[in-house]
Write a sequence for this structure.
């Protein structure tokens, strides 16, 4: 049930900035704004959603996921309803962009955290299913918004969309706080190990932006790879229709390409989660993530070679597959690296840094198109950047795990090897825990 | 399939133009002619004929499906082609329409004479609310000549009534740019709903575009909104109550809960996992 809640919450978070564009033409006409002015609404919402990560982490660490998501849902609902009374574009920037974006950032962070708290063995599947919310909601909300627009105009549609976003509160209600039985006993059992990490945990929660994360090699590697990916990932999708039309494809068929991609994405995310849970992949999930990124980049690089519609459809399918794979794993890998306790703060830090590539990527790509008047340079740049990110992750992770092996005392390794006999189920995860047990055993018991 | 050319010269205040079209293969062809001002337009049709090239065939002209008086002539085969030419005086809106030259009973070329049409017509209605203001816009494409001015009309039954801002300056506002026009209606009422026509005024005629306006009261979206809010409250209450009843049950069950919790859906807390190590 927690997965359902996270699915809804993440679905709204990722799809709302995109589906609002359905209203843009009407808002443009009625408020007398230019196209780029109206497009800022989505950009501001996305930027605030990512930038609000640390604040969201703070709230989640303090109060837990459930109140945070309920608050996020209320914020979103109220922001949309208030925005419907707007008469100027700046009003919309504030209410939809800023307040709505805040609400969504609370939702996103808290949903990811609750998954990391509830699941371990089946966590990749849970992540995959939850992240599948984004394409599902995109496919549902886009036509729904069109319908609402024709029935009620943009103002009424915003009111109803606000109401729909209140369902995030329902999603929050599903996120039952994790009950830890016998926790007082455990604290008594190992007081020595616990007091120091417990204090540092509290300090982490209290600090607004915890920069000690940058000392963690794994985190920095992940962050750099992610920044590369986000920079290059969105522009091809934004420009895919335009590119297809330039190749002579008809408008509706070009729009279908994006729908195909979204549809494929919907199924690939849980599928990837399933694969990632398997015995062979789970311990090597960081490599799988790097591979997915390289795959995505290769798709972009090969796109300019494709001219006819059938091949463009194939490109859209492969794009959907690779995009879904990366996004199913993107937070799973962070959870894998950071562990339960540090994840909320880590994800807050990651999202605020990802703010920059997400805002810079598509305009830079658009700028390339403007200079060279040819879309192929856009695809080359994006593909190149994403492949670089993926290769960086693959190579650096090999180095990282190699260093971890060297640094870990031999005794701990022996201890873990004997424990594998205990439970068949844990064999798959033990290899990954081998690399992480120094950090996670401390983090988990605080 | 068809070639055409323009020869433009003026005599006095009415200009003369020639529009020519040649038909090679197939049986009919249509040409669109855009006119801005009154003109004496010469329409010229050339047909390369069919297999049996008869020396003489009958040719005539049609306007809007009806044969033009005294237009029937015998056309001679000259240099492997038949030619029909006639000058039409296009002065007003009635003179615009569809003109066709017909060769015998086989070949036909149609000339559609019209003022520049408004291409981008909004097909979905604009929805607005009682008491709100609405902006209705019309645009003439960049590729087409710009109109002299714009007029706005509101549909009244089958008629169109022109909207004059001076009559009701508080309610209507018209903002004209060269190729765009905006009608702003303030303080909407339900009666303001319906079809609005924007007219691009050219010397020869005015072309119309239409936009539909729907005015609804704000209770309309409020009803589904309240329904959704009630649904949310009911679901949240149900979930929380269910949880409370579950936890009461588990409290009485005691230690059995831990093993059950691990096997079922949520895999229990991470701390219990860690303890297994």
């Amino acid at each position: 049930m927690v997965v359902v809640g996270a699915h809804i919450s993440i679905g709204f978070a990722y799809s709302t900035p995109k589906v609002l564009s359905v209203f843009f033409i009407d808002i443009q006409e009625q408020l007398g704004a230019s196209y780029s002015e109206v497009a800022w609404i989505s950009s501001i919402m996305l930027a605030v959603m990512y930038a609000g990560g640390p604040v969201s982490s703070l709230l989640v660490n303090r109060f837990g996921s459930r109140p945070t998501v309920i608050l996020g849902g209320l914020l979103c609902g109220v922001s949309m309803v208030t925005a419907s009374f707007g008469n100027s574009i700046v009003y919309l920037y504030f209410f939809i962009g800023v307040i709505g974006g805040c609400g969504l950032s609370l939702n996103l962070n808290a949903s990811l955290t609750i998954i990391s708290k509830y699941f371990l063995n089946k966590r990749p599947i849970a992540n995959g299913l939850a992240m599948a919310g984004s394409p599902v909601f995109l496919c549902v909300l886009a036509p729904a918004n069109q319908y609402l627009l024709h029935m009620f105009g943009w103002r009424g549609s915003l009111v109803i969309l606000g109401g729909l976003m209140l369902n995030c509160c329902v999603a929050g209600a599903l996120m039952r706080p994790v009950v830890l039985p016998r926790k007082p006993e455990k604290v008594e059992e190992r007081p020595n190990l616990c007091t120091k990490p417990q204090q540092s945990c509290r300090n982490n929660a209290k600090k607004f932006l915890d920069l000690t994360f940058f000392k963690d090699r794994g985190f920095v590697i992940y962050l750099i790879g992610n920044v590369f990916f986000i920079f290059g990932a969105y522009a091809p999708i934004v420009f895919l229709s335009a590119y297809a039309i330039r190749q002579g494809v008809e408008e509706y068929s070009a729009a279908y390409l994006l729908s195909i991609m979204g549809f494929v994405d919907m199924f690939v995310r849980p599928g990837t989660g399933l694969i990632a849970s398997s015995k062979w992949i789970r311990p090597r999930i960081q490599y799988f993530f790097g591979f997915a990124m390289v795959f995505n980049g290769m798709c972009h690089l090969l796109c300019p070679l494709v001219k006819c519609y059938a091949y463009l459809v194939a490109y859209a399918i492969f794009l959907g597959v690779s995009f879904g794979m990366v996004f199913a794993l993107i937070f799973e890998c962070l959870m894998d690296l950071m562990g339960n306790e540090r994840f909320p703060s880590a994800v807050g830090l990651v999202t605020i840094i990802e703010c920059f590539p997400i805002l810079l990527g598509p305009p830079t790509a658009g700028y390339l198109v403007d200079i060279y008047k040819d879309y192929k340079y856009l695809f080359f740049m994006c593909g190149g950047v994403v492949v670089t990110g993926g290769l960086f992750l693959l190579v650096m992770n090999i180095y990282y795990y190699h260093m971890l092996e060297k640094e870990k005392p031999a005794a701990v390794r022996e201890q873990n090897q004997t424990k594998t006999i205990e439970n068949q189920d844990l064999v798959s995860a033990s290899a990954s825990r081998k690399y992480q047990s120094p950090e996670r055993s401390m983090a988990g018991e605080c | 399939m068809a070639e055409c050319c323009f020869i433009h010269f003026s005599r006095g205040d009415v200009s003369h133009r020639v529009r020519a079209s040649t038909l090679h293969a197939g049986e009919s062809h249509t040409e669109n002619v855009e006119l801005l001002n009154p003109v004496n337009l010469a329409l010229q049709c050339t047909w390369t004929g069919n297999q049996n090239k008869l020396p003489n065939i009958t040719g005539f002209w049609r306007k809007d499906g009806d044969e033009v008086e005294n237009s029937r002539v015998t056309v001679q085969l000259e240099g492997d082609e038949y030619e029909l030419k006639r000058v039409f005086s296009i002065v007003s809106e009635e003179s615009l329409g569809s003109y066709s030259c017909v060769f015998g009973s086989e070949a036909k070329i149609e000339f559609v004479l019209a003022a520049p049409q408004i291409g981008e017509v909004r097909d979905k209605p604009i929805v607005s609310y009682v008491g709100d203001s609405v902006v209705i816009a019309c645009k003439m494409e960049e590729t087409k000549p710009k109109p002299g001015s714009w007029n706005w009309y509101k549909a009244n039954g089958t008629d169109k009534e022109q909207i004059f801002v001076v009559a009701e300056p508080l309610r209507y506002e018209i903002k004209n740019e060269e190729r765009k026009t905006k009608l702003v209606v303030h303080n909407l009422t339900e009666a303001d709903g319906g079809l609005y026509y924007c007219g691009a005024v050219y010397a020869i005629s005015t072309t119309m575009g239409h936009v539909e306006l729907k005015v609804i009261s704000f209770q309309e979206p409020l009803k589904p909104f309240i329904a959704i809010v009630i649904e949310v409250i009911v679901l949240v209450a149900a979930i929380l109550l269910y949880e409370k009843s579950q936890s009461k049950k588990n409290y009485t069950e005691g230690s059995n809960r831990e093993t059950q919790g691990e096997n079922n859906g949520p895999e229990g807390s991470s701390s219990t996992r860690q303890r297994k190590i």
Observations:
- The CA atoms of residues 240 and 246 of chain B lie 10 Å apart.
- The first strand of chain B starts at residue 6 and ends at 11.
- Chain B touches chain A through 40 residues (CB under 8 Å).
